[in-house]
Amino acid sequence: MSRKLAGSEIERLIHLLARLPGLGPRSARKAALALIKKREELLLPLAAAMGEAAARITVCPECGNVDTQSPCTLCRDDRRDPSLIVVVEEVGDLWALERANAVNGRYHVLGGRLSPLDGVGPEDLGIDRLVERSKAEGVKEVLLALNATVEGQSTAHYLMDVLARPGLTVSRIAHGVPVGGELDYLDDGTLAAAIRSRRPV
Q1: Which residues does 114 contact at the CB level (< 8 Å), separation at least 6?
Q2: What is the average pLDDT score of the chain?
Q3: What is the pLDDT of residues 161-190, one digit of tens each?
Q4: Residue 81: which of 39, 29, 141 has the closest Cα?
Q5: How far apart are CA 111 and CA 54, in angstroms?
Q6: Distance between CA 176 and CA 163 in Å, rounded?
Q7: 14-66: pLDDT as tens digits
Q8: Is residue 66 within 8 Å of residue 60, measured between CB atoms?
Q9: Using CA atoms, how far apart are residues 48 and 174, in angstroms rounded to an integer?
């Protein structure tokens, strides 16, 4: 803000909101005003929910999902197919696949994708843990459900090499997912079709 139009607490709220994905300074000011105008209905419940989330949410040591339980709800679900591990880049991608109800395996969240230009190498992602999990008894397939970006495709090729072993099928979601597209922004039908059309690589 070029001039001080509000108290320091409000300025801090706007500054923090502006750091969220998809919110710039103008959108952050509008969001802050909406919260302030509806203090009882929005601001106070949101502050309480965020405080509780900060205290209780943890990263699952098994798959990398976020939950209030450890291991997470998905890892505890006995109805899931233990022979299939679905690899995604981020938790948002996992949520997108769950919304589409397209797959019923176990998940593995890498926590990003390989990007040498940004200094992200294999040691920065959950790749060692994935390789270890893929060798567990009963695991027959690893499905690479990575975004169709250049970095996502490079990560998929790297994983195909490190996971290759007899008795394990490594598959990828079909290329019905548009190049440059990200899973979290796709509709449920596209995601479900891409999962159904997967093939070994």
Answers
A1: 120, 121, 122, 125, 151, 154, 155, 158
A2: 88
A3: 999 999 999 998 876 667 677 888 887 877
A4: 141
A5: 19
A6: 24
A7: 999 999 988 889 999 999 999 999 999 999 999 999 999 888 899 999 999 99
A8: yes
A9: 42
Q: Domain 8-56 maps to which CATH number in 2.60.40.10, 1.20.120.450, 1.10.8.420, 1.10.10.10?
A: 1.10.8.420
Query: If you write DSSP's letter for every residue of 126-158 in order, what string do you get?
Result: THHHHHHHHTSTT--EEEE---SSHHHHHHHHH
Q: What confidence tens digit (pLDDT) does each residue in 114-161 have?
A: 988 888 888 889 899 999 999 999 999 999 999 888 898 899 999 999
CATH number of the domain at 66-200, please?
3.40.1360.10
Q: Which stretches within the chain are classed as H helix?
A: 8-18, 25-37, 44-56, 73-76, 91-100, 127-134, 150-163, 188-196
Contact 134, 85 (CB under 8 A): yes
Asked whether residue 6 carries a pLDDT value surpassing 80, the answer given is no
Yes or no: say if 121 and 114 are a contact pair by the CB < 8 Å rule. Answer: yes
Which residue is it, tokens 């949520």?
95
Domain locations along the chain:
8-56, 66-200
Q: Is 143 exposed, middle or buried (0-12, 13-18, 19+ CB in 10 A)?
A: buried
